[in-house]
Specification:
- The protein is of the alpha+beta class.
- It is built from six helices and five strands, in the order αααααβββαββ.
- It has helices spanning about 10-15, 25-50, 60-65, 80-95, 100-110, 160-170, and strands at about 115-125, 135, 145-155, 180-185, 200-205.
- The chain has a five-stranded mixed beta sheet.
- Strand 3, helix 6 and strand 4 (about 180-185) form a beta-alpha-beta unit.
- Helix 1 packs antiparallel against helix 2 (about 25-50), helix 3 (about 60-65) crosses helix 4 and helix 4 (about 80-95) packs antiparallel against helix 5.
- The longest helix is centred in the N-terminal third of the chain and has 26 residues, at about 25-50.
- It is elongated and about 90 Å long.
- The chain starts with 7 loop residues before the first helix and ends with a strand.
């Protein structure tokens, strides 16, 4: 239970100080008190936290995280993933209409610190009629900036988790931006020899685009 949780006496104090007219009313109050103390205190605290869900229990944080379509983490990390979801949701609520690529970068840094990069994609002007077949990360005078981005994640992360989170990451961008979630693969580890100028990488793509 978190620091904002109330105990049973907090919830029951109105009942405790209310006049009971007869033995039946006292018995009913006693039964209700026992039920709250033994079985319902956690649920009542969850409801109490709905006003500030990012301060609530892991159950409340996950419930509101799902409701807003944000990243739901289930890592065996001693509760760290619960704290990450809480921080992500709190920032989601605080920035409101300012959500965009900056918020996406914030989420990526929370989930995969120093293991992510957002790259704007460019397209060949000469091959404009064949858009988006000639996308590139590099900028040049013969290319135009597109509305597409590549979310590059290091290959050392849990790929199963990323496959589950990829749809969520794709929904965090503004409506006009088309995201591509990809994992950078070290070509040397694959035994592939590359002799081209500039950065080369292969990707395992998690995006439908």
């Amino acid at each position: 239970m978190d620091n904002t949780a109330l105990n049973a006496s907090d919830f029951l104090s109105p009942l405790a100080f209310t006049h009971k007219s007869d033995e039946l009313e006292r018995a009913m109050a006693g039964v209700f008190t026992a039920v709250v103390q033994e079985r319902q205190i956690d649920q009542l605290n969850d409801i109490y936290s709905y006003g500030v869900p990012w301060l609530g229990s892991p159950t409340v944080v996950e419930r509101f995280t799902k409701l807003n379509g944000l990243a739901v983490l289930r890592r065996n990390d001693g509760g760290l993933s619960d704290k990450l979801m809480s921080v992500i949701y709190a920032n989601w609520e605080s920035i409101a209409s300012e959500r965009g690529l900056a918020f996406l970068q914030f989420v990526l840094d929370m989930l995969y610190p120093n293991q992510n990069q957002i790259v704007r994609l460019w397209h060949s002007v000469a091959q404009a009629s064949r858009y988006p077949l000639y996308l590139s990360e590099s900028q040049s005078v013969d290319k135009f900036l597109t509305s597409r981005i590549r979310i590059k994640i290091d290959s050392s992360i849990d790929l199963t988790e990323l496959s589950e989170l990829a749809p969520t990451l794709s929904r965090l961008v503004p409506w006009q931006v088309v995201p591509e979630v990809a994992v950078s693969i070290d070509t040397e580890d694959m035994g592939v020899k590359v002799a081209l100028a500039g950065e080369m990488f292969q990707v395992a793509n998690f995006s439908p685009y």
